[in-house]
Protein 1
Amino acid sequence: MLGAIVRKELLLVRRDIHALMVLFVMPMAFILIMSLSLQETLGDEEVNRPRIGWVAADGNAAWPFAGLPGFERVDFPDRQALFAAMAHDDLLAGLVLQGRSEGLAIHYAATTPKPLRRLLRMTVIQTLMAARLGVDATADPDALPLPLPVTEHEAAGEAAPQPSAVQQSVPAWLIFSMFFVVIPIATTFLQERQQGTLQRLRSLPVPANAFLLGKLVPYLLINQVQAVLMFVVGIWLVPAVGGEGLQLPARGGWWLVPVTLAVSLAAISFALLVATVVRTTEQATTVGGISNLLLGALGGIMVPTYVMPAAMRDVARLSPMNWGLEAYLDILLRGAEWQSILPAVGKLLLLALGLFLLAGYRYRNATRFN
Amino acid sequence: MTDPVRVRHLDFHYQDGSPVLRDLSLTVPAGSLFGLLGPNGAGKTTLLMLITGLLPVQTGAVEVLGVPIRGHHPAVLSRIALVPQEYAFYPQLTALENLRFFVRLCPGNGTEAERIDEAVRLTGLQNHLHRQARHFSGGLKRRLNLAIGLLNRPQLLILDEPTVGIDPQSRHFILEAIRELNRQGMAILYTSHYMEEVEQICDTVAILDHGEILLQGPLQSLLKEQRRLRIRLREPLPAAAGARLRAWGLEVDGSVIAGQIPPHVTLPAVLEALREAGVEPDALEYGRQTLESLFFQLTHTELREV
């Protein structure tokens, strides 16, 4: 008897493509995405050490940072070459030894996380201290231009500051939650199909697009309520429990509205398309849930893009969740105006239109109503 | 007066190429209560979907209320109503909320309140308007399903199995309501598997099987024309006599003879043939067919695997 039950369950699972996707494809995809995204943040330092640019402006290239522990040194002939490389490469920072009087300047890349900045600064100071005390046998104390002032700067040409935890979390999880309208939209649609209500609605003089718009509008409102709540949590609740509060930009904050609308329209249109494609509630929750998780993992929702390697950042730009996230961060961090967010909003609206039209096509041409 | 539905030489196949309807022609006469019968998989639902524009016409012609239909046609849909077999409403809403939602999607003569009142009165839902539909019994659900179909005061009402799964009292109520609507002049296209129900209320029927209309016309004429004979003999019929009866189209199975007597043969002629063969009837049934026996005669009794 037990054997029969086991055999039945295995047969059911084998014939359920969505269950197989949840069990096998999703974890494999997550392992792939997360491993690639976090390899620099969580990687083995011996194998994958953060890279630091180095310029000795006074020509004293042999000075003690050859062995800066935990970091890989990359030499550049001058500041221009260093800053150019920092704009496009994975360099965490650039160290410029400017001479005895000007001291040592640390130029951080805009995407370098704060903990790594602190680690680099401490390492630089420790290295200087070790050389001064003669701990580092490779350094010649007499040759050292000590005492040496250390100054810290944002790298020239880099515009993007790094978001704080709350600046990253609020828009990221807002976008993620907005895309989760796929579950209620698809399940309601399927219930309508299974109950024959869809057949009845189609037999009424109601255009297909009106029916789909009728589904879009309430969820657009729901998404706006989500947005208000998430920002309220970031601005007031997080500081109330001891975290850093979210600050809205002094100007340009209203541009959050079109970004929210564009993300919402893309999310709802995606949900409508899923609703017209799937056949069962199980399929809806599986397809909707998995696609959201993957779009989120890829798009910098779960792992911020600034800790991803350059290749994964390029992949992240394919996710519509990333388009929305970058637009939010542009406004929250960089005080962006409409010109800056227009490309992201435009892409989201185009995607929304395409998905909506596709959903309408599938709805109009459906031949099965239950 | 225009026939509410005229279908001519209709062919339809789904994407996999399998034919569902073949050269189907059918007319629902004005003012009729038309019963569409057929086993599962005969093509009834596909035909209803073509008539309501839910599926596009591929070959042939469909006219509804005198208007050619090839797909979604809002002007026609506003004058007809489909009541699906399923409970096609929102169970989480009350009956009144459902009626208010659907009435706004169905343009029709009269105010929305008037049309709701009329539908509620006809279906006897007055005391249940403020309850969520999910708490309704099967009979109440069927009545709400029907009420929604009446909201646009349709000229043609299409009912797909409107009495499935309900108690005899609810069935009786719904059948009476349908009859009353028909008396008021509404044409009704009615599908059901309950033969006695169709025989009870429909004035015209069509029997559909394998995508083809096997028989259609006024019900009483069809039943009258198709008189059925069944004779059980005291002993098996001799082969020679059996051959003679088979030549008249009757079925002979041992000591049982059954079938329709052709127009040129009379019952006394059959009995005379038996007397000449030296066999005597033990029991004899002759007369009007029931719709069920006619249905089985045309569609046969084997199970349909669909």
Protein 2
Amino acid sequence: MTTARASPKSSNPAVQLLTPEGELASHDTYSLILTDAEYKLLYREMVFVRRLDQEATALQRQGQLGLWASSLGQEAAQVGSAFALEKNDFAFPTYRDHGVAWMRGVDPMKIMQVYRGISNGGWDPFEHRCNTYTIVIGNQVLNGVGYAMGLTLDQSEDAVITYFGDGATAQGDVHEGFVFASTFDSPVVFFCQNNQWAISQPSEKFVKSPIYKRADGFGFPGVLVDGNDILAVIAVTRTALERARSGAGPTLIEAFTYRMAAHTTSDDPTRYRHENDLQNWKLKDPIERLKVMLARNGIADRSFFDAVDAEADTWGETLRTSVRLMPEPPPESIFDHVYTEKHDVLDAQRAAFIEYHEGFADSGVH
Amino acid sequence: MTTELTMAKALNLAMRTAMEADNKVILFGEDIGKLGGVFRVTDGLHKDFGEHRVIDSPLAESGIVGTAIGLAMRGYRPVLEIQFDGFVFPGFDQIISQLAKVHRRTHGSVKLPITVRIPYGGGIGAVEHHSESPEAFFAHIPGLRVLTPSDPQSAYSCLLSAIRSDDPVIFFEPKRRYWDKGVVDQSQAIADPWRARILRTGSDVSVVAYGPMVKTALQAAEASEYSLEVIDLQSLSPLDDKSVAESVQRTGRLVIVHEAPGTLGLGAEVAARIGKSCFYNLMAPIERVTGYDIPYPPSKLEEYYLPDHDRILFAVDSVMEA
């Protein structure tokens, strides 16, 4: 247990338990006490998630991945919220939530499969209690609510967390998710990472009142949290999950953060935002502030940080090699899993497909 | 005036031309302003026409289509951009329930001169929902016109016609051909975009294609030992089966090519119509070369899904040998 003392309360409306300077802060409603081992674990997880992102970005540049959606800067929001989940809770992430998938135990190579163009899903949602990434903006919110409705019908004590971004708050599906969850008091946490950019559109343009305040209109609580403060993120997510489990219904969490990279590797943010905008947010880096806290409170020292970095280096190298060597699925696998049962039309197409391609093998032409 | 342009630039020029001619023409869509759209098709228009005519919309396709209907009722002529084919479906309800039916419902009083631009099709190594060919859904709906160009000239001509049309037009842009260059003649009287174009004459087999597959069909014709007549449908609704029939009456054989899955695709409609109108001219069963009846595969396997010139030649052989 840390003996660190908290600094005076902040006037920032966002819940904050760890300032950008790495000072612990107290809050009227929320607090969090973790063991030293847990603090160190959180640091390590965020370092690895950032390394995953860096490696994937580099692999995309080298042509090893078709695309990559960077999670840079959002590590605390993702790792912290997923850390708050119990094993049997269910997460519905988007295509940028690598920290969530990581925390749910998804093999990063399976994330790589999606961005290498080998699979549209990558992993089994039931194995990790983490849905595959949803790409169509906002779709997964309704799916998560439906899963939560099922939990209620089953009188389960599990809960759901569904992720989306500020851009998605314009979509009908997200609002319908709010209505359904409110109607049925569903055990779901709506976790919005406001990274302030919907590709080229700054969220301030289409979010005229803070996102978390929308919850009021739907009849459930909304809370704004410093999305780069992993301690505050864990605290508010835990509270929201407890509320869900108790049968009291949903909570909307707005984690205020910043998309430090491009929308995806296909995007060119220099066309719509200034490099200077990033500087201010670099000072609020989620990993750096936890590192300062750990060092200042004597929870970890240089040897720990160096060891984590060295471990991440080795791991990163293995990841790079594994991605390059990743086998491609057999061509006829494009016909797999379209239906659960035998389908005569598709079976005939598969047979013709195989025969056609074997014809080329015989003639040596392709 | 004649210039060599990419298809993306030709589309851009068509919008510029339409906007200069009619100040009621406005562009509306996600990231089309400063960014110039994810494919840069609207590049520079925000700067030149301002944010009141090139409007960045919130991220909501139902919102884009639904509000465009209101804008059109107020006298505007919106040209919408849906970012990718697979993202049109949140807007599908507004397209089917309102956009397609308002003119009829109001006994012709309300016209909805809206163009819905949708980059479509595969071949660019993209992630899921970014490579689909949903044109048949729209061509199936009475009240919508559906156009798809295949080269820079048809892109320019068809988009200008779509914007000028008082009917709603779903405008499918073959995204893998955005960067192909071709000559665009602006001064030339615009050929009728609602008619199919014969791009190569031939005597053995009529090959009908549209959008991204036209180039593939032309490549096949180049490589074939037979004489292929390549027809670009251009308009998917209304369907110009008359031009196709005239060709098949000469060749006696027909191969239809599209990327979309075969079942209930455009090829089925063309085959049904030609089967009736050319029953006595056909010397072989009509062949279709299409995507398989599967969700679009992950990009590493897309080459196995997309019709290529080998598959077209295979079909040509089969109608020649029938």
